[in-house]
Amino acid sequence: MSHQIEDTYDQFATEAARYGVGVTEVSPGKVSDAIVERIELPAVGIELPWEDATLPESVETEPTPADIEAAATGVTAASLAIADYGSIVLRSDTDGSEPVSLFNDLHIAVLDRADIVPDMEAAFEWFGDELRESRDSAIIATGPSATADMGALVQGAHGPKQVEVLVVS
Amino acid sequence: MSSQRESKADHIRHIMETEGDAVGDNTRGFNDGRYESVAKLEDYEGLKDEAREIKEDAIERLPELIDQVTETIEENGGTVYIADDEADANEYIAEVCAENDAERLVKSKSMTSEEIEVNEHLESRGVDVVETDLGEWVLQLAEEAPSHIVAPAIHKSRAEIAKLFNAYFEPAEELETAEELTMFARKQLGELIQDADVGMTGANFITADSGTMALVTSEGNARKTVAVPETQIAVAGVEKIVPTVEDLQPFIELIGRSGTGQDITSYISLLTPPLDSPTIDFDDPDTPIAGEDDREFHLVLIDNGRLAMREDEELKETLYCIRCSACSNTCANFQSVGGHAFGGETYSGGIATGWEAGVHGLDSAAEFNDLCTGCSRCVEACPVGIDIPWINTVVRDRINTDKEPNMEFLVDGLTPDTETSGPDLQKRLFGNFETLAQMGSAFAPISNWVAQAGPVKQLLERVAGVTDQRDLPAFQRTTLVDWFESRDRIPPIDPDRKVVLYADLYTNYMDVERGKAAVRALEALDVEVLVPSVSGAGRAPLSQGMIDTARTKAERVSDQLGPYVDEGYDVVVIEPSDLAMFRADYDRFLPDEEFEPLADNSYEILEYIYGLVANGADVDQLHVANGTETVAYHSHCQQRTMGLDEYSIEVLNRCGYDVTTSDVECCGMAGSFGYKEQYYELSMDVGSNLEGQLRDADADHVIASGTSCTDQIGDLLDEEPTHVVELIAPR
What we know:
The complex is a heterodimer. By secondary structure, chain A is an alpha/beta fold. Chain A contains five helices and twelve strands. Chain A has a single domain, classed as Rossmann fold, CATH 3.40.50.10420. Helices cover 31% and strands 28% of the residues of chain A. Chain A has a six-stranded parallel beta sheet. A four-stranded mixed beta sheet of chain A has the order 8-5-6-9. Chain A has a two-stranded antiparallel sheet with strand order 10-11. Chain A is globular, with a radius of gyration of 15 Å. The model of chain A has no long low-confidence stretch (mean pLDDT 95). Helix content of chain B is 50%, strand content 11%. Chain B is built from 36 helices and 18 strands. In chain B, a hairpin with a 5-residue loop joins β5 and β6. In chain B, α28 packs across α30. The two termini of chain B are 45 Å apart. About 1% of the residues of chain B have low confidence. Chains A and B meet through α3, α4, α5, β9 and β10 of A and α7, α8, α9, α10 and α11 of B.
């Protein structure tokens, strides 16, 4: 089983890299430092759902519309990752995780290593129960925002130009 | 040229000149991406079957699912409105805007909202509508219509977009690169989204169990469109409902791959509105956004002819369409002209014929329905396996039926079809090709001299729209059947196999040499061959939308070949388009007990030879390569769809030839299509890609599998290629 989890993590990291997404494994205590290394200020964020993983002081965790407009970085948790697509799942909530992950040029997502599922089928088994129960919303995000509408591939059409994933283990 | 045909030709020429290059580059890029992306799936066919089953079930249970989704969304706190038609939908949407005192509505891309023309309606009510998808926004500024259902502005080059932006906005510094254009658009649209009152999206799928809408996007504008304003409207056709969340999985895996060749698009939004996410009031910039908001959500489910399509056995399959654009990108004609020629009021590409006939009516479908040549390349590309050529044929038949019968004196004797009403003269001429071929052969060579003579060619062009740019097929006085009957040959006493070689119209009356070669090759491999006189397969009338006539032919062929099959003969077919009739189309015309034995026992000539060789027949009995001989091979479109091109390549390899294959989807001739004067230039444009590949191959032999391909390549290279079997048959 642990072997399978190893494969799943590697596959996720490899697939995400195809879209230019950096994936780094960190211990809970080092999450804050890892964010500081990557962040561009000003930054907005939503408190992480794990007790021992925290956001650095420099991240505004009760953002206003003005903060969102000004922010260069947004930091949120990801609820799930799909290994064979290199995708992360961003759940909407009343705190504002959705806009915080969307408006800035850099999105840093923090993911629990145990939440990487192997494929889309496993992801939709999870979605099925979750969405029927909670009636929540979520985004399957793969790489940065992109468009080819202007004659060549450009990243950051409306959403982030760069995505970094910190995998907590 | 008749004025109608002339204006059609002018329109196509204009589109090819102004938009052809951009459309061609983009669609071919998408199509190549599709092949690469689906090849990565472990079980592509299984996933397609699953997707198809879900759609079949959903459309079957649609009324029940509409009730369920309504209940679910109302339970979630949203509102569902079922709009009978465009006017009904627009009126409701305008009311929602009025109740919210909306001054601006921002939209993410939605073909269904194009179908109902909601922008025009809202603007007449004083609501500012802004398209936020970059391609759609470009078109809104340029006041143009989409040329593609997924990538609406593919007909515009970067330079054209830069020119448009620079003229429209007069920026301090001129915009030039794709990066500059994108960042400029992002900023402009970002500001417009910030003070929008209503956000409107379409929906790729809606689940009945949770009320979740799936939106397949890449830019992030759909996310902003729903995240910022308090009021959200989603516009979707009723056919978008699937039963459960789990049902989304195969579609999510297939839609990006099938369309633009992406394994997955950047964002799959799974929205269960009204959303939990707080609205962002940029007019109140300093209050933290977190907290519960009183969001409003309206799902407008559009019928607009769809429930009637569901009751229409032939059009029903259209409702399975997930609008991925695979049928556009894979289509050789679409690659040359795009949706501005190959499209109706709203929809474009192969499946658009079904959509337009269903939602806007036959007139809109009639505008472009001829551009589907039935090559069938879209069928395997379609993630839900819709028989798109059949839908085009049915609609063509209905368009024919809509017209008064054509009583032209010249052609009536030549056109003994069983149509009860009036396809136009051009269609009847080509649809009755069998009679033409019989008479042409009976009077050959005089008929050939006459047909190639100036006055007759001019008459054919003027009356029936047959282009004078091509040489007409030359009929042979001695048909294949005549030749075979007059042969002095004792059949083998103990043959390995017994074969009926089907003397299709082209082989029997015109391309007799390839028929003789087939007989020689089969006999060299110890097969007993018979070449009886059998009716035309019905491909010609079917391609003209003359379904009754095609059915009559199918019945005749079945009566004539059935007894041989019962006797244990295999049926070997040279013309791939006729084999496709036996194996697929006849399923619609014949009872199962007649269709199945014929379909199961029919083989393409090289498929059959491969089978013989693979089972021990001596390949050296064939004409093998002498040292290093190179071959440039173009397989036939329908042959590829049946998965049979590999056999030709393998037999050529075993005979020692070094083979290079073309990878264009179709040669562009497609039976009669390239002979029609209004489509001749398009046909040659499509062919130019094949020409380039064949010339680049610079091989000792150019060979092809279909009559149309052979004729087209002959015109492109000024040198008639031969059929595969002519190369490998003993001389």
